[in-house]
């Protein structure tokens, strides 16, 4: 059994996938398997490394990113799980850093930055028992997260988007977190298609979060205000001005912030 099973879901982005898999193959920690799940696009085979640690699972029909990860995990044999989106990259020490963290806690989180940036993205450093703060802002993306296999909970298939937020909230009920600011994951900003994970799906996912975790959000006003703010911004980005303003007002009632107030004012001014 390898130390790590790396799960990579993909849909019709072979050139980006080639780069992502190359960054996995270049890891200084070589004790891993990589499971690539092609979500019905049949484009991944052409860019798969010849490295025997890489395995392709081709799905006949498209099932979405959440189910793709669950399928990959069901086939995984590693002691720990790690994830990479097909349009992002890892730095060579990503798995070595995860191994350091997993020696301390069941969940290990590394730092991240945009590919073209020189500084890491600003995220809170989540350490120890983080359940009561993990969704106060952006929850750490799956590309930054590694977890012991025995601590893993399946992703909820009801979520086509925001599944990582729901998952992180459930995982941290019982499991502590190790976190570092050291950057080991790179996020790509691009205008390419986001299959099944665009703004409309994120709106649905965010509303579902508030429904499924109503008790949590009801007792955590900072987290509630942030999710309502996200719903406001997402709706405005889709041209849903009335809905966007409604969510921004709800965010301000939950927890006043300059950011939400400024965004609401800009919307009312037609910007």
Question: How many strands?
Answer: 8
Measured distance between first and last alpha carbons: 55 Å
**Largest sheet, spatial ordering of strands:** 3-2-1-4-7-6-8-5
Q: What's the alpha carbon Rg, rounded to whole Å?
A: 19 Å
Order of helices and strands: EHEEHEEHEEHEHHHHH
Which band does the percent of strand residues land in?
A: 15-25%
Helix content: 25-40%
What structural class do the secondary elements suggest?
alpha/beta
Q: Output mean pLDDT.
A: 94
The best one-word shape is: globular
Characterization of the model:
This protein has helices at 14-25, 65-75, 94-102, 163-171, 199-212, 214-219, 221-237, 241-254, 258-268, and strands at 4-10, 32-38, 54-58, 80-83, 89-90, 107-114, 145-148, 177-187. By secondary structure, it is an alpha/beta fold. Helix 1 (14-25) links the parallel strand 1 and strand 2. Helix 5 (199-212) packs antiparallel against helix 7, helix 7 packs antiparallel against helix 8 (241-254) and helix 8 runs antiparallel to helix 9 (258-268).
Provide key terms for this protein.
single chain, 271 residues, alpha/beta, eight-stranded mixed β-sheet, 9 helices, 38% helix, 18% strand, globular
What is the strand and helix layout of this fold?
Layout: E1 4-10, H1 14-25, E2 32-38, E3 54-58, H2 65-75, E4 80-83, E5 89-90, H3 94-102, E6 107-114, E7 145-148, H4 163-171, E8 177-187, H5 199-212, H6 214-219, H7 221-237, H8 241-254, H9 258-268
Parallel strand pairs: 1-2, 1-4, 2-3, 6-8
Antiparallel strand pairs: 4-7, 5-8, 6-7
Helix pairs in contact: 5-7, 7-8, 8-9
